[in-house]
Design brief:
Layout (H helix, E strand, L loop, with lengths): L1 H6 L10 H10 L1 E5 L5 E3 L7 E7 L2 E4 L5 E4 L4 E3 L12 E4 L4 E7 H14 E6 L2 E10 L7 E8 L6 H5 L7 H8 L8 H11 L5 H14 L8 H16 L3 H13 L19 E6 L4 E8 L4 H5 L8
Antiparallel strand pairs: 1-8, 2-7, 3-6, 3-8, 4-5, 4-7, 9-10, 10-11, 12-13
Helix pairs in contact: 2-3, 6-7, 6-8, 7-9
Length: 309
């Protein structure tokens, strides 16, 4: 696992999936060239492996006089094919103690070609919008199936299609990383509200929202659009009489609550309050904000539905 973690940082392995890196690590051989100026490969020499530089650098001198420097993390050698390939140019070490990992051509070809067979591409209107990889996640073979490894940024249905026992942490991973490929959290919020209307997806959508509120409440704080999303979602739970889920949502929001001081000034004594209150001593409850007028000074000041006064 330590070797796998180290290889993950090298450019040669950057575009490979974790399962590919794991299989390559299992068959790689470590090699060291102690002296600078040592010829590693001659021009026209048959290649029999794929190699990655771990330490040091090498220089390739081509027949036309051009030179190229390869450094730590760069790769050289065969392509993922069993056809014979030959070195172009002479490769020499530039420094002492050059270190490499080498993978035999047969192993390299087998692993990368097997991966291609395990890939499933999802197309819409002739465009690839998602790539899945078939994996076995335990030695018994009971947990196996396709896991999403690539997806088009706007392919929102990835949330709907991907969560399964094969990849049980997909939702958590998505909520942690979506900021890198979506411009606004409301892109996710709108999809969740849309899917909530489908009874077959309702429980799954509710689980996503609860995880989102519990783990990433900062996405909702200070964002009026996301606050309205939560209010609309809460109303949907009430409408569908999902009392248990509604209590869980309220508990999650209450756990993230913070004491705040908000100052509001009315234009006159007779002017109505830009929000509605519920509760009070006569009902045996505290006083809570039931709703806030959209676009009002109260909204701008950060007053939200559910705030206790």
């Amino acid at each position: 696992e330590q070797l796998l973690e180290f290889m993950h940082q090298l450019p040669a392995f950057a575009n490979m999936t974790m399962s590919v890196r794991r299989e390559l690590c299992a068959v790689m051989v470590f090699a060291v060239v102690e002296r600078a100026g040592t010829i590693v490969l001659n021009d026209g020499e048959e290649l029999d492996s794929w190699s990655v530089i771990l330490n040091g650098s090498v220089e390739v001198t081509y027949p036309d006089g051009r030179t190229e420097i390869l450094c730590m993390g760069n790769s050289f050698g065969v392509s993922p094919t069993m056809e014979k390939e030959y070195m172009k140019g002479v490769m020499r070490t530039k420094v002492d103690d050059c270190q490499f990992v080498c993978i035999a051509q047969q192993d390299y070809c087998r692993i990368l070609n097997q991966v291609e067979k395990n890939m499933q591409k999802v197309e819409e209107e002739g465009e690839i919008v998602m790539v899945k990889e078939h994996r076995e996640l335990d030695r018994t073979g009971t947990r196996k199936g396709h896991i999403v490894i690539k997806v088009k940024a706007k392919e929102g249905s990835v949330l709907q299609k991907s969560h399964s026992v094969v990849d049980p942490t997909f939702i958590e991973d998505f909520l942690l990383t979506y900021r890198t490929f979506l411009s606004s959290p409301m892109e996710v919020g709108k999809k969740l509200l849309e899917w909530f209307n489908d009874p077959s997806l309702r429980d799954k959508v509710t689980r996503v929202v609860l995880l989102w509120v519990n783990n990433h409440f900062n996405d909702f704080e200070g964002d009026p659009a996301m606050t309205r999303f939560l209010e609309e979602f809460e109303n949907n739970l009430e409408r569908e009489k999902m009392g248990g889920h509604l209590r869980l949502l309220n508990i999650a929001c209450a756990a993230k609550a913070k004491r705040r001081l908000i100052t509001l000034t009315k234009p006159s004594r007779e002017a109505p309050l830009p929000f509605i209150l519920l509760g009070g001593s006569e009902k045996g409850f505290g006083i809570f904000v039931d709703s806030v007028d959209f676009g009002s000074k109260a909204t701008e000041a950060g007053l939200k539905r559910g705030d206790q006064v």
